[in-house]
């Protein structure tokens, strides 16, 4: 087989040093979609060395902010030029619908434009009043250095942009390792960076597995920061590997997110319809493979039966199929492993007493859903409680659990009874109540009468075991910078502290 060159080091595309390759499967039919290089430690070390040289000796860190911002805007233009191509890549690779892929490209474009504008609009530094005209004191920001980026399989292009855009805006160099399951859109993005004129060595890419590539990046002494998005277990390994070198670490580790619905939100026909529709969106978009998925419906007991019955009725009508087909609303799970995991969670929930309202199995094969695809029906599990694994753990599948409450305090207690704290929502026609509950929720993003939207200018991240650090917003840029205080004495004189 001919060498596959998906590793990018110092401006050159190359095969893995070992010659190893990996098949990337189409989750809709389990057939080979592409073949990529399977990088290892040697490839990772070469990529880090290139990024180190580019930072220590290359022009990028010292490039004026306006020029860095201009390059990010060129990348945004190229993303829109290739919008349909990239959306198709993302749909085929992850299983999501083509329209979701288009939305992802637009969101990535917005991220590059936002960080370009944010960096270009900043002043040269914050002047500090030292209390005397004889001192000039200023706080400035400088790039961290070499950044290692490890991204997940569910939103590979989006999560890459949340790291790459601020890192480049701040003047860093980087090595990125996309998930071995969904690497293709990241390969395309790195090609666009080169086309936009990014100097060689600034952007480096190693396709491969978490062990050894991700592990080596996390421990590497020449890496100054590691940013990881993924599962809790892998995230703790990244932090442990990074600890001996005391590098900066940013972790986004998912969530188990509550969607709290009060009865007054359902008092009108329009309110009821909206709350049910949004609960479906919260739980089942991208087959539930979303870190902020509203997988826990926490609903007031007085409307529980009516709400769940309608929710299950609509969930049964969700059209499954290949994401590129017209009319498909939900694609497959990303892999056989994820399908097995979903089946195991549903089985454990039923053993622990949950009531299956819909789904709970793979659909029958048809002309849209091949027999070998990783499909699972949207599943609603009623009568759940906090002791169930399916309620405590992040399932990352099309599973919605239902819990109920009778008082506001009980709703808040249930919503906060999780070791995670990434996102959540509250639905109420009472504005004062909604804002009061939102203030009490221990989650990094809280929606009121909505679910899932985010803004690139607003920070994203979680409390508790959902991680440390933030992406997006001004703080997302600060993650990739060091802060330095420069104190200049304009009229130096002897201190005479020692008599001498």
TrEMBL record:
<dbReference type="InterPro" id="IPR015590">
    <property type="entry name" value="Aldehyde_DH_dom"/>
</dbReference>
<dbReference type="Pfam" id="PF00171">
    <property type="entry name" value="Aldedh"/>
</dbReference>
<dbReference type="InterPro" id="IPR016162">
    <property type="entry name" value="Ald_DH_N"/>
</dbReference>
<dbReference type="GO" id="GO:0016620">
    <property type="term" value="F:oxidoreductase activity, acting on the aldehyde or oxo group of donors, NAD or NADP as acceptor"/>
</dbReference>
<comment type="similarity">
    <text>Belongs to the aldehyde dehydrogenase family.</text>
</comment>
<keyword id="KW-0560">Oxidoreductase</keyword>
<dbReference type="InterPro" id="IPR016161">
    <property type="entry name" value="Ald_DH/histidinol_DH"/>
</dbReference>
<comment type="pathway">
    <text>Amine and polyamine biosynthesis; betaine biosynthesis via choline pathway; betaine from betaine aldehyde: step 1/1.</text>
</comment>
<feature type="domain" description="Aldehyde dehydrogenase">
    <location>
        <begin position="13"/>
        <end position="486"/>
    </location>
</feature>
<keyword id="KW-0520">NAD</keyword>
<dbReference type="InterPro" id="IPR016160">
    <property type="entry name" value="Ald_DH_CS_CYS"/>
</dbReference>
<dbReference type="InterPro" id="IPR016163">
    <property type="entry name" value="Ald_DH_C"/>
</dbReference>
<feature type="active site">
    <location>
        <position position="252"/>
    </location>
</feature>
<dbReference type="InterPro" id="IPR029510">
    <property type="entry name" value="Ald_DH_CS_GLU"/>
</dbReference>
<protein>
    <submittedName>
        <fullName>Betaine-aldehyde dehydrogenase</fullName>
    </submittedName>
</protein>
